[in-house]
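User: Hi! I'm working on a homework problem where we have to compare a predicted structure to a textbook description. Could you give me the structure for the chain below?
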Amino acid sequence: MAISRYLICVFLWIVPYLIFPQSTLKKDLNPKELKLFNDAKISAQNGNYEKSNNLFEKLLRSKPSFTEGILRLASNYYSLLDREKAETLFTFAISLDPEYDPEMYYSLAKIQMENKNYKDAAENFDKYVIRQKENKIKSDRASSLRDNMLFIYDALKNPVPFEPISLGPNINTVHSEYSPSLSMDGNTLIFTRNLGQEDFYVSMRDTIGFTQGSPLTGMNTVQNEGAHSISADGKFMVFTSCDRKDAYGSCDLYYSLWSNGKWTIPVNMGHKVNSAAWDTQPTLSSDGRTLYFSSNRLGTHGGSDIWMTYRNEKNAWVEPVNLGPVINTAGNEETPFLHADGQTLYFRSNGRPGMGGFDIYISRRDLEIEQWGEPVNIGYPINTEGAEGGFIVSLDGSKAFFASDNDIKSGVKLNQLDLFSFDLYEAARPKSTTFVKGNITDGVTGKSLKANVTIKDLKSGKNVFQVKTGDDGYFIGGVTVGHNYACIVEKEGYIYYTDNFDMTDVKVLYEPYFLNIKLTPVPKKDTIINSKPIVLRNIFFRSGSAELLPESDHEIALLSGMLKENQVIKILITGHTDNVGNDGDNLILSRLRAKSVSDALVKSGIDSSRITSEGKGEIWPIDSNDTETGRHNNRRTEFVILNSKL
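Assistant: Happy to help. Predicted structure tokens:
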């Protein structure tokens, strides 16, 4: 590094030694030089750096290669906030004697870091780590800083797209707004506003943007409410409140239900979820059955970690578990946000290589092995030298929302937090996700029904969404590309309903699914019925064959279970095809496929006398055979309930 103009003027005594430098040690000083050295040290210890600098410079004119003197002079300049001179002197001292003291590499690296010379800083932190054998804590710290410098150096060269815009005056005020959440359909924004205390506010999207934020009725109290999450159907909210009388720790998680047009009185989530420590920043899965949150309870890897709990078969929350060292570090992990795809987690951490302070990271969950992947920094300039957090993403993954105390356009520091949004770049987006929205009614009376709704991944057999609707029969749940789903609706006394959403080969989703589900009551004994055909939408065969695929197992189990629960019912299974191919071949194939379903039911324990099967070939289409979608709909297996007197 070139000597600064100042040092060329002041330290001309250095020049003869730059070609063949040789370090001078303290033992090489004469009594007069030793006195200058001690006086300079005492002046620095007393905070008189100007006097100390004059004495050191006088000493170095006679002993220009006195390494310790150069290092102390460098430290003085650093204390005077003159980093340029300090960096030059540390560099010169190292050139005199590279093995004099490992600490000079650490000091030089810190200065280069502050001067934003990240590559050189990383090299000198690394040299410190190589030489420092005694102070493991500081060596580990240097390793972490080295990784940070390398990350920043690379991130600055490879910025990610980022053009944030304010949510505007209907949301942002002279007070602080933060901790946003967005409904699954993107039309409702709930956020925290601090007017001396934290309260919830709500805004609805209109044709222009978001409407004026207003207090969330029934949820706000004289205490602080904040850091919340709401289920996809908008009926279950978890939030953080601190120092309540019924709290188990400093901050606890509470829940409230939307019932009869209002929010119920908040209830503490109990001693299994909450602890004697700090439990906060919840995020719910779309069905409200899995909860992630941040806590510094006993068992953390660092200051605060991300934990997870879920509701068991009895609808009770189980003991939370730590997400483990893949997600959590010796630092702090906070503000988790689980996207509706169920497999993308955003959170902030100060325990990983980043831009500085808290950075936002992404982890993706492998659904087959049920493990979270190594987190990835979301990148610069989304992450900065400041502390980022409170980050959420819209259902389709295109928009991200966050809070900042910077005016994004001018870079001027604000006196409060405001809410912003931006287009999230492709690589940081979750799986393309849409939603299934439905209303469940009695097929005879039209009355809304309370029922159990499950969305199941047919390949893995795992439930990705499971909820019991309220009296209004309404539900909404997320589905992502790359999977074949069954939607199952069950209620005692009714024939189950299924639908199928095969998105195995779909790359991008745009339109949601809307279902108007009319459940058919199970006929009572000796009742004359007029049953309509019920399509078995999750029965699948090998192409051109009557061999059932494994994905059909759950539909067979559902139909078998319904027959076992209602012993008087007899059914007729009918197979149908499209019009592609020979009429006679299609008729035979439809008969064989209906027979395969009948045989599978018998194998499951249903008496063969209760099942009749037939094939109709291509003669009863329910859709046009001119399109692939229509032909797909016509290739079906269905059943009708026979008159129970027969």
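For your comparison, note the following. Confidence is low (pLDDT under 50) at residues 1-20. Residues 5-157 form a domain with the Serine Threonine Protein Phosphatase 5, Tetratricopeptide repeat fold (CATH 1.25.40.10). Good luck with the assignment!
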